[in-house]
């Protein structure tokens, strides 16, 4: 079955989403925010508990942050949106370096609550990227560790 993304058909233009605030987080897809039918909410607890000792997480963070730094002109701080940021591991690596002004997005609020606790100065938004776009501009939009779920 083909993937039908917003804006891929002239009859279906890209829609800019509006938000409501839930727990201080901009929710662009509030009907999905607490619907864990695709991913169990306990998965965020497991991810958070294992992230600091996970070989995969630390290797992935080094790989992706290094790749971004090599591919981008770092004469100015770059704005990045990570779609599917989980509990914020990669974003923590990116913002700690000072090279990136980061925004994290996740479809589920539980992951974003972990993110906000870890990175209180970073903006986090809840939305389903297949529903449309948010009203913001970024130099880089990334979706690491999303497609395999």
> Biggest sheet, in brief?
6 strands, mixed
**Cα shape:** globular
- Individual helix count: 4
- Tell me how many strands there are: 6
Tell me the Rg in angstroms: 15 Å
The neighbouring-strand order within the major sheet is 1-2-5-4-3-6
Mean of residue pLDDT? 85
H-E string? EEHHEHEHEE
Helix fraction bin? 25-40%
First CA to last CA: what distance? 17 Å
In the predicted model, the low-confidence regions spanning at least 5 consecutive residues are: none
Judged by helices, strands and strand pairing, the structural class is alpha/beta
Q: Proportion of β residues? A: 15-25%
Walk me through this protein's architecture:
The protein has 149 residues and is an alpha/beta fold. 30% of the residues lie in helices and 17% in strands. The protein has a six-stranded mixed β-sheet with strand order 1-2-5-4-3-6, with helices on one face. Helix 3 (89-97) links the parallel strand 3 and strand 4 (100-106). Helix 2 (55-71) crosses helix 3. The protein is globular. The two termini are 17 Å apart. The model has no long low-confidence stretch (mean pLDDT 85).
